[in-house]
Amino acid sequence: MSETPETVKELRAAVVKLNSHEVLDRVFASVSSAVNTDRVQREATTLHVGRPSRTLFKRQLTVAHLWEAQAKDIEARSRLVELRVSLTTHREVLSRCVKVVRTDVSTQYASALRKFGSTSSDRSAIVDRLVRKPLELVDSIDSTLEVLDTLIKDIDQTAFGLRNAADLLKITLGPRASEATI
Fold first, then answer.
1. Is the pTM of this model over 0.70?
2. What residues form DSSP beta bridges with 62?
3. Which backbone phi and psi does 181 adopt, to 5 degrees?
4. Distance between CA atoms of 160 and 158, rounded to whole angstroms?
5. Torsions phi, psi of 5, nearest 5?
6. Vertex 11, ends 10 and 15: CA angle to 5°?
7. Cα dihedral 111, 112, 117, 121 sign
8. Which residues are CB-neighbours of 100 under 8 A, at least 6 positions away?
């Protein structure tokens, strides 16, 4: 580095020229085009709401209804996990790139950062502003992952209840359980 940036604007211009920042820009462009958290949340909500196990109490309970509900729950859970894995992978790649850029900026421009912030948290805030958009995408992915985790947990808890209902049908109806209704 030949010259120390005097303003945050000059620092931003210098950071953009870093190899790690160029990589971050490419990764951010790739991840942001591949990840649409709003679409993922809509799909997850649609899968969750469309599960027959949510409306089992409204109809006559049969073994066939239980099997259908369990099968649909397994299908929905599988897709939710698939969405979660994809988001987690994208998040990790983007987070690693952000971390590298933060480290590069903090080490290569340490003296300049001291001019702009007297405390470590002030300097971290300045560096965070330089990678604001990727950090916002990471936050959006994190909140979507929380939604997916909640829906997956709900399906797991429902599966426990359905298993108990199936066991009750078997006990109550004995050998005739496969064609019986409650």
1. yes
2. 181
3. -130, 160
4. 5
5. -60, 140
6. 120
7. negative
8. 20, 23, 24
